[in-house]
Specification:
Layout: H1 2-10, H2 14-26, H3 30-46, H4 50-66, H5 70-86, H6 93-105, H7 121-151, H8 160-173, H9 179-187, H10 192-203, H11 211-224, H12 228-245, H13 253-264
Length: 265
């Protein structure tokens, strides 16, 4: 016990380390800073000074990501979530805001709508590789955060806000969008209007035959989870937004079935 108290006393305030480490990152020594972030935060965790460890890891994740160091930033973001668990930190609005800040720090880079409509194929290949790295890093972070939130105060499916963040990032950053994954997380979220906007955007660029399937999948997902209210809001919003966006609402037998199904339910 006395040895642990000694370790606690030896550690300086976290802000001192944060300032030193930020300078290392700003000087361009990303790898060196990464090792220091991990080792320094581990000492605070070992001394059970979880709040300060979280401050260090949060700062590190955000600054590495702001410098485009996705692999380093995502690793520190995961350690941030891991430390939340070790410290048995409850889910609340303050922690959610800190998770949002990390999420917003992940880079966003537009890819051509038609991936093959470019001249420089080598550059395209590099862009696709970078996009996959970003999506994998952000997805790993948010999935860990969702799991933590489910275990420490959010509902059984995890924080709805975190599900929305993950769905949005997968949709906006993936070279080839997996709408099944996007739908999975939006349905566990709490914003069917935002989901409708995403689906309308997808309708404007998807392959023929994918439009009605995407809408049907979304409605059936809501219904299977017992959420008739959001299923109806989603359909109403899609119809409203397709009119204003001048995107064609699919008029197929599958859509007729979904409409009748909602009326029956």
């Amino acid at each position: 016990m006395s040895r642990q108290r000694s370790r606690r006393a030896e550690l300086p305030p976290a802000q001192e380390n944060i300032e030193k480490l930020e300078k290392v990152v700003n000087d361009g020594n990303y790898y060196g800073a990464q090792q220091m972030y991990k080792s320094v935060s581990a000492r605070y965790v070992s001394a059970q000074r979880y709040s300060e460890a979280l401050d260090i890891l949060h700062s590190g994740a955000c600054i590495q990501l702001s410098h485009g160091q996705v692999t380093c930033g995502a690793e520190l973001a995961l350690l941030f979530v891991e430390t939340l668990g070790k410290g048995k930190i409850p889910y609340d609005e303050e922690i959610l805001e800190r998770l949002k800040k990390i999420y917003k720090s992940f880079p966003r880079v537009s890819l051509p709508q038609n991936l093959w409509d470019v001249d420089d194929m080598q550059q395209l290949s590099e862009n696709i590789g970078s996009a996959k790295t970003r999506v994998e890093g952000c997805s790993s972070f948010l999935k860990a955060a969702i799991k933590w939130s489910a275990e420490h105060g959010a509902n059984n499916n995890g924080s709805p806000e975190l599900h929305i963040m993950l769905a949005e990032y997968i949709f906006s950053e993936s070279p080839e969008v997996d709408m099944a994954k996007v739908t999975y997380h939006f349905v566990r979220g709490n914003n069917p209007k935002k989901f409708a906007s995403t689906l309308v955007s997808f309708l404007g660029k998807c392959y023929p035959g994918e439009d009605d399937l995407a809408i049907a999948r979304a409605v059936l997902r809501y219904l299977s989870s017992g959420n008739l209210k959001d299923a109806n809001i989603l359909m109403e919003e899609i119809k409203k937004q397709t009119e204003s966006a001048e995107v064609a609402f699919p008029k197929t037998e599958l859509m007729q079935f979904i409409t009748y199904l909602l009326q029956t339910c």
